[in-house]
Amino acid sequence: MKIVCSQVDLKNNLSLVSRAVPTRPTHPILANVLLVANQTKNQVTLTGFDLSLGMRSCFCAEVEEEGVITLPAKLLNDIIARLPEGEVTISYEEEEMEENPLVTINSLSGKFQLRGVKGEEYPELPVVEREEAFLLPVAALNEGLKGSLFAASNDETKQILTGVHLTRNLDTLEFAATDGHRLAVVKTSAIEETKESEEEEINSNPPITEAQNFTITIPARALRELEKILSMAKEGESIALFVDEGQVVFELGQQNLTSRKLDGAYPNYNQLIPNNFERTMVVDRKRMIESLERVSVLSDQKNNLVKFTLNSDNEQVTLSVEAKELGNAKESISAEINGDNFEIGFNIRYLMDGLKALSANEIKFQFNGATQPVIATPLSGAQMTYLIMPVQIRD
Amino acid sequence: MKIVCSQVDLKNNLSLVSRAVPTRPTHPILANVLLVANQTKNQVTLTGFDLSLGMRSCFCAEVEEEGVITLPAKLLNDIIARLPEGEVTISYEEEEMEENPLVTINSLSGKFQLRGVKGEEYPELPVVEREEAFLLPVAALNEGLKGSLFAASNDETKQILTGVHLTRNLDTLEFAATDGHRLAVVKTSAIEETKESEEEEINSNPPITEAQNFTITIPARALRELEKILSMAKEGESIALFVDEGQVVFELGQQNLTSRKLDGAYPNYNQLIPNNFERTMVVDRKRMIESLERVSVLSDQKNNLVKFTLNSDNEQVTLSVEAKELGNAKESISAEINGDNFEIGFNIRYLMDGLKALSANEIKFQFNGATQPVIATPLSGAQMTYLIMPVQIRD
Asked: Where do the DNA polymerase III beta sliding clamp N-terminal domain residues begin and end (chains A, B) (predicted)?
């Protein structure tokens, strides 16, 4: 194999696919990235894979001799990132392939040699039947992931709850995530927003039919990496999603991401969201986040509990934290309140996560009793619903 | 007690003295900062102390009622840093002083209460006889610490080597630090450099006499914090140093730092520095640091060994690392070489530490044999000597 490529291309593509390389690989070869050089296309393909999540990226290079090899991802990344900008040559002698060859990396600054492992030992990425792709607008995915990913469970034993549940129903795309304590749901449009200047093209996309509806649950870990790929997309682009029995593949330009799906029935979350409420409160989001950040200094030391006291007479909500032997904190924020005065307790971390994801200036809270689910929604922008279970206040 | 002060003053002074507060205090009270409010001076003094290092800082405040109290440093810092800019009021009722009082912190945003501990339980900073102060130029201290601190030992069992040895001999101030593997020595001027425009004042500072000579060894940990204080000094300022049997105090404006001295005889390091050399090499410092950073990716995986091969015929030094099962690296740098070709091995970390501290563009290396100490000096700027012991190369 012999390829000549630019240091910048190699660095960027390598750092992307390395995100799928596990830090504690179950098999030694998974600590490596797969490098495939194709002479016909003058293209190099890099792959990182942890048996659940795979990331693949292609870039143009001068391929003087084809080849397939794997190299230790972390070392290779550390070296390539430090090389000076300019041409990098990666090569090894095919006759060395009897055993694992020394791969030479030449740059303007000097020469590295790394022991590679033959490509055939690297596991194949699962193949997905690629007949029909769902085209999803990048903007909708960004909005949906930002508003839901944080609420997925980090507890691997909770299986299906470690994913985000994605539903396409005709022209809406819905994202949901819950860890059992809070639930985040975002509704977005499954069709690319047509700009006014492009109105003549309005009929270029055929309408989505019921046959194109789907529901899948995708591991949050894979979707966090998908966010990295999305950040490279141009405005107005769509990403292709291929789905089969066990796998999904997202494809954007030269990058793709493969992930297993999560099996099992996702909770019927819509039935958890109450329709009627006894009280509502509208507050400034940033002001509330700042107050929560201050009082959290004390709640972090104890049980993470913050108490809201709604007072409709003076149009204020008071946030208070009691950390007995250490002290206490109290801040009041002006709020538009409808309904009787009352007190309710929250886990401050769950509350802050939600307020940070709701990107509007003003947030509407809807309450029933002090032990019933609370809903927070933004007054503008994304169509998001954040449900949070209150915490009982012990006096 | 009741004081009204600015959030910015409180935050800055608190974050400074908190640097002396131990993360794992041997007595619970040491996790607190001492706050003393003086009504006559309208001044608040904050103190942090770990029984070895003490930091004290004063600032102006409106003191409505005097008082002495200690508060948990970390909590207080976290709260004050998050408060909005503007006035902060700190108060407690003196009648509560029977037990530990709840101290109230009022700001524009709301109210915090923290359980304080009575000031009399806080240990006194050691008193140093303040009769004569040595005045040390801030610029000299900065230069000396930058060039020596990194070479002090981090191994607490090495006692005297965990400090920097400071010698004033008439108008020179010398800093030395060694951990047994390398030695850094910086010579600076003990007199404030007089600017040309101030030539008329040239005789304002009386010459330093032999009676004002001193040698002391100060813990590196204290000097790292001194660097923080020095960074607040204005150009041309001097810092006052008070020394007694067991303690030193550095004083700059409203800030002071107290530290115990390290007892014991400091190694006679000057006799370790060879006077004659068989070979010299001059290289570009940045070029060499960049090369070392690249090849260190491999040496870090093994024994930290980098081999220098000096070749006076093609005026190059080749840096090479051999990490057997992983691979190898080789870079060549142009160098002015005098003397026979030869090979020598170094601990790459020690080499990089020294090159980063030597701030000149060009560095001169002086060698004898491959097992004898090597000296690196900058060709311009600070007067610094870096001695490094080579590592034996095993073939």
From this structure: 1-126
Domain for residue A360, yes or no? yes
The domain tally of chain B equals 3
Residue B208's pLDDT band (cuts 50, 70, 90): confident
Is B126 a domain residue?
no
Task: Check residue A391 and report its DSSP letter.
Answer: B
Is the CB of A327 less than 8 angstroms away from the CB of B112? yes
Instruction: List, in sequence order, every residue forming a beta bridge with A58; answer none if it has no partner.
Output: A45
Assess whether A218 and A289 both reside in one domain. Answer: no
More confident call, A94 vs A343: A343
Range of the domain at B325: 273-388
Which residue, of B250, B269, B288, is where some domain finishes? B269
Cβ-based contacts under 8 A for chains A and B: 95
Sign of CA dihedral B69, B73, B76, B80: positive
Arithmetic mean of pLDDT, A305-334: 95
My answer on whether B229 and B294 are in the same domain is no
**What is the overall mean pLDDT for chain B?**
92
Q: Which residues of A touch B322 (CB under 8 A)?
A: none
Residue A54, pLDDT > 90, answer yes
Mark whether A20 and A77 lie in a shared domain. yes
pLDDT for residue A202 is more than 60? no
Q: Over the stretch A62-82, which tens digit does the pLDDT of each residue have?
A: 999 999 999 999 999 999 999
Closest CA to A51 of A222, A217, A227, A266: A222
pLDDT at B378 (0 to 100): 96
Q: Distance between CA B317 and CA B340 in Å, rounded?
A: 12
**Are B170 and B238 in a shared domain?**
yes
Judge if A254 and A309 occupy the same domain.
no
B59/B96 same-domain check? yes
pLDDT-derived band at A164, boundaries 50, 70, 90: very high
The answer to the question of residue A127 being in a domain is no
Report if residue A200 sits inside a domain. no
Regarding whether B253 and B166 lie in a shared domain, the answer is yes
Q: How many C-beta atoms lie closer than 10 Å to residue A236's C-beta?
A: 13
Min Cα–Cα distance to chain A from B322, Å: 10
Q: Indicate if the pLDDT at residue A228 is higher than 50.
A: yes
| CA B224/CA B8 separation, integer angstroms | 24
CB contact under 8 A, B112 and A329: yes
Task: Look at residue B274 and tell me whether its pLDDT is greater than 80.
Answer: yes
Tell me whether residues B75 and A111 touch, CB distance under 8 A.
no
How distant, in Å, are the alpha carbons of B210, B288, B315, B337, B376 from that of B282? 38, 11, 10, 7, 9
Tell whether A170 and A88 lie within a shared domain. no
Q: pLDDT (tens digit, 9 = 90+) per residue, B23-70?
A: 999 999 999 999 999 999 999 999 999 999 999 999 999 999 999 999
CATH number assigned to the domain comprising residue B339: 3.10.150.10
User: A114 and B327 in contact by Cβ < 8 A?
Assistant: yes
The complex's ipTM works out to: 0.87
* Partner B contacted by A334 (CB < 8 A): no
A167 neighbors A173 (Cβ within 8 angstroms): yes
How far apart (Å, rounded) are the C-alpha atoms in residues A209 and A195? 23
Whether residue A339 is predicted with pLDDT greater than 60 in this model: the reply is: yes
Q: Kindly give the interhelix angle for B348-357 and B138-148, rounded to the nearest 10 degrees.
A: 160
